[in-house]
From TrEMBL:
The chain crosses the membrane at residues 25-48. The keyword Heme does not apply. The keyword tRNA processing does not apply. Residues 66-115 form the LysM domain. Keywords: Membrane, Transmembrane, Transmembrane helix. This is LysM peptidoglycan-binding domain-containing protein. It comes from Citricoccus alkalitolerans.
Amino acid sequence: MSTAASVNTRAAGSAGFHLNRRGRFLFVGFPVIVLAILAAAAAVFFGAHGMAPAAASDDEPVAAVESITVNYGDTLWDIAGRTAPDSPRNEAILRIGALNDLDGGDLQPGQVLFVPAGG
């Protein structure tokens, strides 16, 4: 046997290593998952902060609104009384709920609510 025949030859472009299933996931799948999570977080962040407080239609005049931050122990009843003292509280609560797409009366401290300005 000659020495030329016993030399190992590699195919052109072979890097000398192969990725197993876990390696392919780390180099391809994991970055794709991270990018998808970041894209979803950006969509939620910009979608929530980019929306107008109330959708205006052509038939109804645009009402002035202001934003308030919910404090610990605040209820919709208290907020309606502070922001619209001259209106019936149940109507003020319904307007606040409509402006903020609220399903119930659960509020969280630090939550920002849109309320009708000037009562």
